[in-house]
Known about the structure:
three-stranded antiparallel sheet; 2 domains; six-stranded mixed sheet
Amino acid sequence: MKIQGSKYDLVSTASANISDSFVIPANKSGSASGEARLYVSSQKSKKFGSFFTFDPIIDIDGYAGAQGYCFFSKENLIKYMEDIKVFYDFPVSTYRQDVSLLYQERMELVCRLKKINRFQIYNQNGDLDADRFYIGSNNSLWELMRTICLPKPLKTLQPLTVVHIHKLVNRSNKNDVIYYFELFVNPKSEPRKIKSKQLLTNKNRKTIKNDTLILNTNRRSLVISRIGQGKFRRNTLDIMSSCPFTGIDDKSLLRASHIMPWAHCTNNNQRLDGFNGVALTPTFDLLFDKGLISFENNGRLKISPYLSDNIISLLNLQLENSYEIGNSTGNKNTYLEYHRKHIFLFK
C-alpha cells in the first residue's frame, strides 16, 4: 500500500464493532450517555497486546499515545456513507433523532475532508478496565466517526458498522508504523426496506391526521404528496411542464421533486407549493436530490465538484448554462437558496 509516497506492508488487522455506547447522542437507541472511547478487544490478548504500541512519554489527559499516527481515507468514508444511506433512510432502530434528516449534512462533512486525514489515538483504559482494551482520541476526526456511524441495534447480535484497523509498516523503516481505520457496513445487516418504508408512510399519515392546524380539505393532499402523487405533483407540473435538460413533457416520465425537502418544510403550504418543486426526468432528478446539481435563481446550472467528469460528459451537463425552471416570477428563490445552502454538495 502506497501512502504519501512511501510503501507500507499490512502486518495485522484488528476489528471493532460500533456500539450504541460509542456514538454521539443523536445516533443512540438506548438511554445511556455513553462514552467516546472504542472497545477493541481484551487487553490481555497477546494478539492485540502487541498490535498497538503506546509511548508513555506522550501523555494527553493522563493517557499514553500510540506510536505512529492513525488515518482515515476520504474515499473509504464516502463509500461508507453511500453504503449506510439505506439505514439512514429506513432505520432499523429508533434513534433519539430522525437520522434521515441528518444524512446530507454529515455527507457534506465527509466530502470536505482531505484525501488522507491523520489523527492520534490513546490507550484510554481506566482503573476498572484490566480485562478490556479501549482506545480514544481528542481529535475532531474521532468525533466525526462517532457522528456518522450508526451503531449496532439494541437486542441484536449483528453489528451494523464495523471498523477494521490495519497495522501498516514502512518497507524501508520498520519503526515507521501507521494505523489505517476503515469503516464498513456489516454485509449481514438487512435494512428491511419495504417494511421500514411502510412504517415511515404510516408515521407520516398519523402525523398529518393528528395535526389540528391542517384543514380537512388539505389532509388527503398532504398524505398523497408525501408519496409523490396528488396536489403537489399537479402544482409543480402546472408551473414546470417539462424537464429542462431533456425537453421531455410526458407526465408519466417526469418526477416532481421538492426543492426544499418535504421533511425540511416548516409548514404545509410549503409542502404543497408548486414553486417548491422541479419537474425532471429520473436521472436528473436523482442528481438534484443528491445535491450533485443545483440552480441559481435565474436557472443557471451549478455542478458539484463531487460529480465525476465522466458523468458530466455523458450527460452533456454544461456548467453555467441557463435552463427554464419555471421561476420567472421569483417565487422559487427562497426554495432554491435553501437547496444551494443545505442540499448542494460543495467544497
